[in-house]
C-alpha cells in the first residue's frame, strides 16, 4: 500500500511533466513545419516570381504619336498594335509633322522591347533609339513618319 500512496503523491508532478512534454512536442512540431516552409516555399515563390516577371516583360506599354501630319494615323496604328498584343496607353501628335521615317524610342532602356515593336511594324533597327528617363512610365514610343505606307499593316 505504501507504493500506491507514493504514486498518488507523484501524480500531480507527473501530470505537469506530461503537460510540459506535450507542449514541447507541439512546439517542436511547429518549428519543424516552419523550417520546412521557409526552405521549400521560397523556392516555389521565386519560380512564380520569375514566371510573372517574364509575363510582365512581355507586355509592352507604349504610346503612338503622329509625326507626319496625316489625320488619324496614330489611331490607325494604335488599333494595329493592340491587335498584335501591345498595350497602347496613349496616342497623340509629335512635336512636328516633318518626320520622314518612323522611329521607335525605347523609354525604359530595355532595347529588346523596342526591337520587338520595330519588328512588328517592319521598321529597321537603325530607326530604334534609346531615350530613357525615369519620368516616363512607358516602355516604348512609336512616332509615325511619312513612310507609314511602307509599314506592316498585319
Offer a few descriptive terms:
5-stranded mixed β-sheet; 3 helices; 5 strands; alpha/beta; 154 residues; Alpha-Beta Plaits; 2 domains
CATH architecture of the largest domain: 2-Layer Sandwich
Q: Let me know the average pLDDT.
A: 83
Taken from the alpha-carbon principal axes, the silhouette is rod-shaped
Low-confidence stretches: 48-56
The structural domain count equals: 2
Determine the N-to-C terminus distance. 100 Å
Instruction: Give the CATH topology of the largest domain.
Output: Alpha-Beta Plaits
- Main β sheet profile: 5 strands, mixed
Textual characterization of the structure:
The chain has helices at 2-58, 73-83, 111-121; strands at 61-66, 87-93, 103-106, 128-130, 140-144. The chain has 154 residues and is an alpha/beta fold. The protein has two domains: 1-57; 59-150, Alpha-Beta Plaits (2-Layer Sandwich), CATH 3.30.70.2390. Strands 2-1-5-3-4 form a five-stranded mixed beta sheet, with helices on one face. It is rod-shaped and about 100 Å long. The N and C termini lie far apart (100 Å).
Amino acid at each position: 500500500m505504501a507504493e500506491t500512496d507514493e504514486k498518488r503523491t507523484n501524480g500531480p508532478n507527473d501530470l505537469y511533466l506530461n503537460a510540459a512534454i506535450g507542449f514541447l512536442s507541439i512546439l517542436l512540431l511547429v518549428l519543424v513545419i516552419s523550417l520546412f516552409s521557409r526552405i521549400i516555399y521560397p523556392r516555389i515563390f521565386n519560380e512564380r516570381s520569375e514566371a510573372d516577371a517574364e509575363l510582365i516583360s512581355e507586355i509592352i506599354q507604349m504610346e503612338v504619336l503622329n509625326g507626319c501630319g496625316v489625320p488619324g494615323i496614330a489611331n490607325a496604328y494604335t488599333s494595329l498594335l493592340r491587335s498584335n498584343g501591345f498595350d497602347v496607353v496613349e496616342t497623340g501628335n509629335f512635336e512636328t509633322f516633318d518626320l520622314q521615317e518612323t522611329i521607335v524610342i525605347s523609354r525604359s532602356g530595355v532595347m529588346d522591347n523596342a526591337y520587338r515593336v520595330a519588328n512588328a511594324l517592319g521598321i529597321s533597327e537603325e530607326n530604334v533609339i534609346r531615350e530613357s528617363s525615369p519620368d516616363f512610365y512607358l516602355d516604348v514610343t512609336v512616332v509615325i513618319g511619312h513612310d507609314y505606307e511602307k509599314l506592316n499593316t498585319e
